[in-house]
Design a protein that fits this description.
Two copies of one chain form a homodimer.
Chain A: H1 3-6, E1 20-25, E2 31-37, H2 39-48, E3 52-55, E4 60-63, E5 72-79, E6 85-92, E7 107-110, E8 113-116
Parallel strand pairs in A: 1-6
Antiparallel strand pairs in A: 1-2, 3-4, 5-6, 7-8
Domain Phosphoribosyl-AMP cyclohydrolase (chains A, B): 33-106
Keywords (chains A, B): Amino-acid biosynthesis, Cytoplasm, Histidine biosynthesis, Hydrolase
GO molecular function, one term (chains A, B): phosphoribosyl-AMP cyclohydrolase activity
C-alpha cells in the first residue's frame, strides 16, 4: 500500500505527457469511450460538469460534444488506487463515438478478427 | 471514418511504447481496473483466457493473479473504434485491486478530496 492508495487527497499521477487515462461509462456500466485528461481537462470537467479531455491528436483541450452536441454529463468521478486512471460515470446526450455508435466498443475480438456487436 | 474504425481485422494501434490501454469490467459493468497490454500480453490473454498485462513498473509480462490467485477469466474482449483501447469483460476470481478492494476504483472525487465508496 502506498500513499496514493490510501490518501483522501485527489492527487492525480500524471504520466510523462501530463495525462491520466479517463474511462467513461454510463450509469449501467456500459463502457462508452476511453480518452485522456490533463490537469486542465480535469478542472474543466469538474467546473462544467461535462466531460472534457485532452486530445492527443489535436494537442488541445477537447470538450466531448463541443461540435456534435453529444456531451457527457458527469454523474460521478472516481479515481483508481494509484491515481493514474479516472472513471467518469456519465449521462451521454447522444452517441459517444465519432462513428455514430453509442459506444466506441462496437466490435468484439475473435482471434485476429473483429465481429460487429448486435 | 478511418480504416481502423471499420475494418473487421484486429489490428491494435500500439503507442510509442508498444502498448494499448486495457479496461477491465465484470459482467455487470463494474469497472475493476485499468492496465496496459502489449502484443505479447494480448496473445497470452487470448491463448490462456486469463487477463495478462504488461507491467510498466516492472517491465515484464504480468498475468493478473499470478501470485494472489485472483485471476480474471475473460468472458469477452472488445476493441474501440481506433483500436488503441481494449475492453476486457471478465469474471474475477477475487479482488481485482492489490489493496484487496474488489475494484481499484474505491474512492470518488469530490473537488480536491477523495471520498471512500461504501
Amino acid at each position: 500500500m502506498t500513499d496514493k492508495d490510501t490518501t483522501l487527497r485527489f492527487d492525480p499521477a500524471f504520466d510523462a505527457n501530463g495525462l491520466v487515462t479517463a474511462v467513461v461509462t454510463d450509469r449501467t456500466g456500459a463502457l462508452l469511450m476511453v480518452a485522456h485528461m490533463n490537469a486542465e481537462a480535469i478542472a474543466a470537467t469538474q467546473a462544467s460538469g461535462e466531460a472534457t479531455f485532452w486530445s492527443r491528436s489535436r494537442q488541445r483541450l477537447w470538450k466531448k460534444g463541443e461540435s456534435s452536441g453529444n456531451v457527457l454529463r458527469v454523474v460521478e468521478l472516481r479515481v483508481d488506487c494509484d491515481q493514474d486512471a479516472l472513471w467518469v460515470i456519465a449521462d451521454p446526450a447522444g452517441p459517444a463515438c465519432h462513428t455514430g455508435a453509442r459506444s466506441c466498443f462496437y466490435r468484439r475480438v475473435d482471434g485476429g478478427a473483429l465481429v460487429p456487436l448486435a
